[in-house]
Task: inverse folding
């Protein structure tokens, strides 16, 4: 049986701005254009994507809370019938802001925490005191009745700290911990030699993370990397195999440009001018992502039908070809 072909993406990851109060060394959007769609037009665009059949929108940036009209934007999305969430560094969230976000319709907010050691997190994010502010933000959000998660970018600084990171997430009472694989996009590409892991280190990290996940921890541990199929992680409940980019979700930049995901800098259209459902149906780029062809060591690999070559964004960034084997893959 083939994969389900949806009539529209389930989720839009929408960067409402690109300016940020942090200086993260792995940022994928730091070099993007700073042009932003104004609030009125953005609300019209949100209604447009909801009408197309999109069920949820996740706001990001940059740091989305630097937009003073974010609450209005979120209200527009919620009133259109979509589930509304956000990724934030948490620095600007106090008790008042958390209540404002709840009133605006946010159902979930993910906060970035990259180490259980405050000084390591602060160094990675480039702002002193950011770890403490992130921890406080989670408490304020939970107090306001918003579901919370932690997003952790795995890199050289934290890949040996799986158990302590999970312990911290449990202590902070979040519902989900997202271990994000290093993408090599934007500044991540420039700093990949200092931050990215070797294939063998990725194998070791995922083996430990899977072991912790199978221990029955108190929270949902999310591993968003297709290559874990090589470690026997075959989820029969997944709607799609391999990367979800262009299959379940799309990305919209602050100027309205539409890309398969935030880490694939190929523009397939613009939400201000194009019909989302038509792009979803007819884009040649999305067609390539949905019908990848095994090349190199993927040919004949027993796990290919599960991972489909791994992360398409990473393959493109480091080889120039969606179909190339994921550079993180440890298989010979």
Result:
């Amino acid at each position: 049986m083939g994969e389900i072909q949806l009539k529209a993406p389930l989720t839009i990851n929408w960067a409402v701005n690109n300016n940020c109060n942090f200086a993260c060394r792995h940022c994928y959007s730091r070099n993007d254009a700073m042009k932003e769609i104004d609030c009125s037009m953005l609300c019209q665009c949100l209604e447009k994507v909801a009408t197309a059949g999109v069920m949820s929108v996740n706001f990001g940036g940059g740091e989305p809370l630097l937009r003073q009209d974010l609450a209005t934007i979120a209200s527009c999305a919620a009133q259109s019938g979509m589930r509304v969430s956000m990724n934030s560094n948490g620095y600007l969230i106090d008790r008042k802001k958390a209540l404002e976000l709840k009133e605006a319709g946010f159902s979930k907010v993910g906060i970035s925490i990259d180490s259980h050691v405050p000084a390591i997190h602060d160094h990675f994010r480039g702002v002193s005191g950011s770890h403490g502010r992130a921890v406080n933000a989670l408490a304020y959000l939970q107090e306001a009745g918003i579901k919370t998660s932690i997003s952790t970018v795995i890199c050289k600084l934290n890949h040996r700290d799986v158990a302590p990171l999970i312990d911290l997430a449990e202590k902070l009472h979040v519902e989900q911990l997202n271990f994000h694989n290093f993408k090599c996009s934007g500044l991540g590409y420039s700093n990949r030699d200092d931050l990215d892991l070797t294939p063998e280190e990725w194998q070791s990290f995922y083996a430990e993370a899977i072991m912790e996940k199978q221990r029955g921890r108190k929270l949902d541990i999310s591993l968003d990397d297709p290559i874990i199929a090589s470690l026997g992680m075959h989820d029969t409940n997944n709607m799609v195999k391999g990367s979800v980019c262009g299959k379940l979700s799309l990305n919209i930049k602050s100027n309205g440009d539409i890309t398969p995901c935030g880490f694939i800098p190929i523009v397939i259209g613009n939400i201000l001018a194009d019909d989302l459902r038509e792009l979803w149906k007819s884009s040649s780029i999305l067609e390539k992502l949905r019908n990848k062809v095994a090349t190199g060591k993927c040919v004949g690999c027993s796990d290919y039908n599960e991972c489909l070559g791994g992360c398409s964004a990473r393959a493109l960034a480091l080889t120039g070809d969606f179909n190339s084997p994921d550079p993180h893959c440890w298989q010979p």
